[in-house]
Amino acid sequence: FNSVFGQDIGSVNVDLNYLPEELNSVGFYNSSIEIIIPTKFQKGILINSVFYSNFGMDYPSNEIINTSSLETFKSVGYSLKYLNSINDKWSYEIIFSPTVSSNFESNLTFDDFVLNGGIIFTRKNNGKKFQIGFLNNSSFGFNTPIPLVTYGSKWGDNIYYTIGFPITKIEYQINSKNKANLYLKPKGFYANLSDAIILNSSEVAEKATYKSIISGLNFTHTIDDFWKIALDTGYQLTSDYDLVNSHKNSVYKFNTKNNFYIGLNLKFDLLKENN
Fold it and tell me: How many CB atoms lie within 10 A of CB 4?
């Protein structure tokens, strides 16, 4: 948010994450790519982005249902954000993001679409930042609006912390090229099943939802003016992976165990600062 207001920078972000399968529990790997292009206007900034995400699931050999149609879930979407100032302390961000999220086992239907978005108000004053709003973000595993409330402030010359929901973190700027942060945040997916799964005569699964809370350490290194690389390692504190019906009630719960995970992020800046 801060960097976007300072300059027009387009970027390409690539994420890779892996949580290994344990005995009698599901593991997963996730890869995603996002292309972000902001455009500065006389009043505000418009940010266009497109993204693709792939969730692969590793099931234990003793899983009691047929998981052949549940091995991969994909999300493809477009995001439009508008950021503008209200006065010298307050600003706002409006997000609109139609997304297709499915296992893509058959033709697309309206049920494969998810409308993500939200609105966030930000107040900055004397190095402190307060944010309040709501988000509908299926990459958290929810298909319902969730509140956003955070407070951030600088502590000394090199430490900045953010406390709140859905993300809490503390960041340490080691030097001009390296920084590290500890974080607590949600991660997951919400996807349609192209072909409903009949579990028994009375239970029909139509969606898959994966929700987790992860805590980890991220180390980011600036390679040059264009490239950044980040390494993640952490632990999954909670996890739930369910098949749900049309009323969002769980009809089948997979066994998941908390485990360590690793991740890699690459960022490439497309454009230099506009003069």
Answer: 16
